[in-house]
Amino acid sequence: MSGTLVDANVILDVLTEDLEWLDWSIGALERAIEAGPVYVNPVIYAEVSVRFSTIEGLEEALPVDQFRRLAVPWEAAFLAGKAFVRYRRSGGSRLAPLPDFFIGAHAAVAGLDLLTRDAGRFRTYFPSVPIVAPS
Question: Which CATH number is associated with domain 4-132?
């Protein structure tokens, strides 16, 4: 599979017109859409949904013709769990797997690029995933 999984922070930068990140996020998202296809998964969808009071509003903000829906494969859930174990063993304090582990594992298993502006955890725990992030 080819394409780009778009992290919620990039989408939210555009939707909220974030003063610091708007220009970078719009440009990166436009390039990803042009190269296509771009995807969101249920974890990303849930993270973006907090800005909306209705599912209709969220669906309008994430039109299916631009943001394809992609389920998280079982293999990605397994890999997310393994990454979480590494995180805990290296001193991580969270008690449950973070959304980033599911997102990174999904990109790794599906062979997708990942568009994010917060690349640190992805690069650490999913080094095989091509990351598109600010320098």
Answer: 3.40.50.1010
52 and 61 in contact (C-beta within 8 Å)?
A: yes
Degrees to nearest 5, angle at CA 98 with 86 and 75: 70
pTM for the model: 0.93
CA angle, corner 35, sides to 127 and 2, nearest 5? 50
pLDDT (tens digit per residue) in 7-58 = 999 999 999 999 999 999 999 999 999 998 999 999 999 999 999 999 999 9
Q: At residue 40, what is the residue type?
A: V
Burial of 60 (0-12, 13-18, 19+ CB in 10 A): exposed
Burial call 78-113: b when 16+ CB within 10 Å, e when fewer: ebbeebbeebeeeeeeeeebbebbbbbbbbbbbebb
Residue 5 near residue 110 (C-beta atoms within 8 A): yes
CA distance 45 to 8: 7
Kindly report the backbone phi and psi dihedral angles of residue 131, in degrees, each rounded to the nearest multiple of 5, phi listed first. -105, 130
